Amino acid sequence: MQFIRTSRLYALALIAALALTLAACGNANNTSTSGAEASEQPSQEASSGKIAIQDELGTVELDKAPEKIVVLEFSYADALVTLGVQPVGLADDDDPSLLMDEVKDKLGSYTSVGSRYEPNLEKISSLQPDLIIADTDHHKNVLDQLKAIAPTVVLNDHLADYNMALDNYMIIAKALGKEAEGQKRLEEHKATVEAEQQKIKETGYTILPAVVNPKGFFAQSDHSFAGSFLTSIGYDDPVKNEEAYPQLSLEQLSETNPEVIVLLPTEENTIVKEWESNPLWDKLDAVAGGKVLTAERRNWALSRGLIGSEHIIKDIAAQLGE
């Protein structure tokens, strides 16, 4: 009898344990199902189509991906065309020839809103944009007026170095609702740079790009877009200046004595023509070594973006490569 009683108790315990196990499995399945359902639910921001962007001044909120965009720097036009977006307005200094050929070809028709330094606010307003992309330096005095016209994303473009320009690119891609496309194009850009680097066998020397006009020689230090891009691919900056675009006299240029100079002229006759008659010019290592090169300012200095930097490395590979 004792054995039968024990067996009965054991059976009851086994049944109870089995019931608890089944209940636990049921709860686990319920939890798993609800988790899956939760993961399938889009976020409130995604479902509403709203976009929040962090720019230089804080957070900019857009109700949806913008369709009518005004850009106030050449770099932003560079960014938009790589993302397949057509701006309705562009500050092109009333001179479309300042645009890179690739950008101009992809832009098609747009409305010029005047100078990058003093954009035409009335013309911008007439375009009824749903997004304006501005610069912290060039547009600091008209930001309030721009924001009164449309949501305005403010980026540090004019004083941006190469890495900052890449960050700006992804901010713009997010503002346009094209982060995935932006990331893909950024990866293509890095692959292009790496491929061109393979054509350059020697980079361990000093190279100085400079915008030159009749009044001065404006070096592009490693705090500038072009200068920092060159250091990122292995060249040295001879200027070592905290300013992005320090103006140098011939005597100061002689002190830095770069091994390569890349002139970015604004027009045919520049201050260099005057300097060429000075003995100091001939003593520069770049001059003595036959490495004073000329490149297009619009490609190297005006469009601080993916296409611009791809131009720079292709020029360097062509002139200093194999």
UniProtKB/TrEMBL annotation:
It is found in: Cell envelope. GO terms for cellular component: outer membrane-bounded periplasmic space. The keyword DNA-binding does not apply. One of its GO terms (biological process) is iron coordination entity transport. Residues 1-28 form the signal peptide. PROSITE patterns: FE_B12_PBP, PROKAR_LIPOPROTEIN. Residues 68-322 form the Fe/B12 periplasmic-binding domain. Belongs to the bacterial solute-binding protein 8 family. This is Iron complex transport system substrate-binding protein. It comes from Paenibacillus catalpae.
